[in-house]
Amino acid sequence: xxxxxxxxxxxxxxxxxxxxxxxxxxxxxxxxxxxxxxxxxxxxxxxxxxxxxxxxxxxxxxxxxxxxxxxxxxxxxxxxxxxxxxxxxxxxxxxxxxxxxxxxxxxxxxxxxxxxxxxxxxxxxxxxxxxxxxxxxxxxxxxxxxxxxxxxxxxxxxxxxxxxxxxxxxxxxxxxxxxxxxxxxxxxxxxxxxxxxxxxxxxxxxxxxxxxxxxxxxxxxxxxxxxxxxxxxxxxxxxxxxxxxxxxxxxxxxxxxxxxxxxxxxxxxxxxxxxxxxxxxxxxxxxxxxxxxxxxxxxxxxxxxxxxxxxxxxxxxxxxxxxxxxxxxxxxxxxxxxxxxxxxxxxxxxxxxxxxxxxxxxxxxxxxxxxxxxxxxxxxxxxxxxxxxxxxxxxxxxxxxxxxxxxxxxxxxxxxxxxxxxxxxxxxxxxxxxxxxxxxxxxxxxxxxxxxxxxxxxxxxxxxxxxxxxxxxxxxxxxxxxxxxxxxxxxxxxxxxxxxxxxxxxxxxxxxxxxxxxxxxxxxxxxxxxxxxxxxxxxxxxxxxxxxxxxxxxxxxxxxxxxxxxxxxxxxxxxxxxxxxxxxxxxxxxxxxxxxxxxxxxxxxxxxxxxxxxxxxxxxxxxxxxxxxxxxxxxxxxxxxxxxxxxxxxxxxxxxxxxxxxxxxxxxxxxxxxxxxxxxxxxxxxxxxxxxxxxxxxxxxxxxxxxxxxxxxxxxxxxxxxxxxxxxxxxxx
Length: 733
Hints:
Layout lengths: L13 H4 L3 H17 L8 H11 L4 E5 H7 L1 H9 L1 H19 L11 E5 L18 E11 L3 E11 L5 E6 L20 E3 L5 E11 L13 E7 L11 E12 L1 H7 L4 E12 L11 H11 L4 H8 L8 H12 L4 E3 L3 E3 L5 E5 L5 H11 L3 E5 L5 H4 L1 E5 L6 E5 L1 H4 L4 E5 L6 H5 L2 H5 L2 E6 L2 E6 L3 E6 L12 H4 L4 H5 L3 E5 L5 H18 L12 H7 L5 H14 L9 H17 L8 H16 L7 H17 L3 H10 L1 H4 L6 H22 L7 E5 H9 L7 H4 L2 H5 L2 E4 L4 E5 L3
Helix pairs in contact: 2-6, 4-5, 5-6, 9-10, 10-22, 22-23
């Protein structure tokens, strides 16, 4: 029986201490105990369950939390950070034994099991890594800018002696230099030797370039980059454009070209990846816990969930309900369809925001960039046709012509955001025609003829000609965009900066309150909460939960159309075609039928429904009609609003505006009482119902019954007295 060894009482260099066999056995024993006996708060063994999940998924990476290891076996955690190469070799062997103890035949699936160290607490900046980090475990974060192909790298080599035919080996290769035999043990000759190709074992090898994230670069500096080596099952775990965190061993290798250039010994440094995690994995569908799914289903049972989601889009931006609705529909997206495998119909919803300066168009795009699972942001002047689609360049390693995807390719299965869309050159804009409808990019350059996938929604923002939108002109005269590109957008949102005293006052209050609440030095208890914000906050969904909700809906919900829904779509399309002939706005084409269907599916997805209901179609029709009417001249707009009144005002929520009007009347009444010298009681005020109705009529609001019965009305201390025709405001302090 082994005598217990005290690992903590080592003398001399740690690397030499770990070469002793008794020490290695003790390290293996402690790590084995950790895997078998570490328990969580519910007293369940964590890593037995993790191994079972790993084997069920046929994987060969066992994720071990550094925090768990430092809690249960602190000495192992310290050593794995200082001497990771030696420690991980022991960990891999122990992990394989533990897996084979639970699943004896698993060796047929994978010959090796790898321990991946997760949740390393300290994250280093790429520019801050120094020689003190060499041969230690580091964690760096950045954006993947380039990825090589997958190459076979020698792992265990066997050599044949060409003189006597004796097979030598295996020689285990490391990443620093090639291990070769000195002489043949059979005939004692010094060579020549050739590699025995059949008996040599290889491993997958790939190199990616990691560049500092744009947000972490100090002011006025250029981004630094570091090369990361991926081995075994980690290849292709990150695509260019993705933001990742890499935990790995910081090593150096001798580079002859660097020495020739500099004239003295300089080493090239790389990071050998042990664990790679994507930033977006925190919200990806397979990481959603059961608690998250329960909360998502509970949220979906709220009948007002679609309205709440639309309100929760960019909550720091006031108003613009039509833009928020369009962006919400685009982020959920419709259901793509393959017709007999020959013809593909896109499911992504494209949105164009066109309007006056200072109407938060770019802020909306930035919000989507932060919220969407996968998004690429670019601007019209900063993007060329090649930058948006795909470029052909020479690979620096193989010297062959290779393809490098542009913004639309990198945003595949996500959202591509293009700001200043009107500033793009016409030639560059033509290049995205195919990407926006067929969602592919065809390339025939430098002998490469291929087609790349670009299955992404496009949300673009543009300014009108001359800076401001002129309602006396039609849409084509206001914008320098051709009809083919406009017809590819499902929703066009025209944003006008209209002077309106009531709306402007509410906007000013919202902005001032937002600035006061968001100030970093201001405590939350000191921040004045405005009444409107207080009323809205009950409906807002937390942004983390909203991201998870969108991810879950896109992953698991695939709404289907029912036969009974087609008649209404056909009728509205026919009416719209008739109206578009007489007006001079955006022409209505067959694509708009598909837009209606896509938006109906997106609205059904918000409710996590399997089938599209009539309610979903009505909301889609309302969105399309609002988009169509807003592109018309001012005179034509009014007649179209009257014609399509029943569709445009479907389920629109004007309660906030009505509440604001009612509050303004209460203030006016109190001011009048003070001026006339009457007794003033700010906690008991009466407002005439007829005066309120007349004021609401100025904003084309006639249906007040739903407002009177809403929780918002009662929550703000209002009561209705039908007999006297008065609205009572009573507040008890």
